[in-house]
Amino acid sequence: MIIHVCVSCEGFPLTIQIASGKEHDSQYFIEVMESVRVKTDGRPRTRPSEVLADSAYDTVVIRKYLRSRAIKSNIPVNIRNKKKSKRGRPTRFEYESYHKRGTIERFFAWLKMGFRKIASRYERLNVVFKGLIEIACFMLCWKKVEGTF
After folding, report:
1. The whole model's pTM is what?
2. Closest Cα to residue 101, out of 48, 54, 36?
């Protein structure tokens, strides 16, 4: 099982999806982005201003999806995709803002080091496993709000 998470720049999880390990991570990108809902005064926000992702998400489908929703994509070009010369609009990549992507790596480190049961995955049912992940995310958010993290 693979955990797909969308995390804010502050390190708070916005959405969590669990998928089998058979498919590539990029297959679940649109599903994860569709489930993002941030509550605000009035309608919830469903569209972030920018998405930071690693080069595994460098596909034409993902870039078209983000462009159709007017979301800035900061995804480095995958070396395997660079072999073919592309025509058209160049891809956007800002190295300075890409450093913020470390928050997702820290989030997974906190999740798997602080909650060993999630890292080893003893549960057979996906519902139980996702419930444990949601409890762990709640505890991580609580620690961040409290200021102990």
Report:
1. 0.78
2. 54
